[in-house]
Amino acid sequence: MTKIQHIPVLLEEVLTYLQPEPNQVFIDGTVGQGGHASAIADRILPGGRLLAIDRDPVNLKIARERLETYGDRIVYVNDSYANVTELADEHNFHSVNGILLDLGYSSLHIEDASRGFSFMKEGPLDMRYDPEAEVTAAEIVNEWSEESLAKIFRIYGEEVRAAQIARVIIDTRRHTALETTIDLANLVTTVVHAYGPIHPATKVFQALRIAVNDELGELERALPQCVDTLAIGGRLGIITFHSLEDRIVKNFFKSYPNLEVVIKRPVAPSREEIKANPRSRSAKLRVAIKT
Ligand SMILES: C[S@@+](CC[C@H](N)C(=O)[O-])C[C@H]1O[C@@H](n2cnc3c(N)ncnc32)[C@H](O)[C@@H]1O
Fold it and tell me: Which of 55, 65, 221 is the pocket-test mutation for ligand 1 (most atoms within 8 Å of CB)?
């Protein structure tokens, strides 16, 4: 079996607030390596059913191997959660009691240099969750206009030196294409200086990852569909990792009809969890019930 690398974040909190119970029907829209799904499956199966969705076929395969013992009560789909209504219909998932979206990347994406997500490891500038998706980070970096690059670094990366980074990329690519993660990380370091433990290219890499995978657009398309797919009384839990995603979820929960927020303030990981799994430090869980 492939080694499980990803530690699920806020696992106990997800179980507390989504309340999976025997015989219920759940959807994990970002099954990843199956950490949350395995804990949910333990509670709803053998009588219940779980739809496990992931855009990344490598993670989906790992989840399938990990959850093999549950048999055909779990249905695996390599697709985007932004198609959740259609996928639920297609696989006969009706009256859904709970949906979980645990957003962003998993440990696999950072640890496998060939996926191009890490500024610490040399790999192609890729960053696609779905290896068949059209746009790669290399295309954005080497083909987009200076204005478009500055815009994504500013908006998706909240990078104050967005304009200078876009400028240096344009100047460099006139004579050499930027092909690897390290090419880009080194270039960013000429403009943004290291400050504390955060790598200077962190925000640029976040911005590119969001743009490559249209992460905010996917979330905006998915949220109303999740509510439509839930039964009345069903629960929707979303784990976000940065303020742009969290704002979208917070505003949606506040304004969408037939939704009641379960916890006013988002749930954050405990100090112990952050110590054991530093990646969890920026996680926030919001939960709402369909009324
Ligand atoms: C934080 S990980 C999920 C980890 C999982 N909860 C676990 O316990 O192993 C996020 C996953 O979402 C997937 N993903 C990202 N965008 C997606 C999308 N639009 N639709 C479906 N999956 C997506 C990624 O490929 C990744 O596997």
Answer: 55
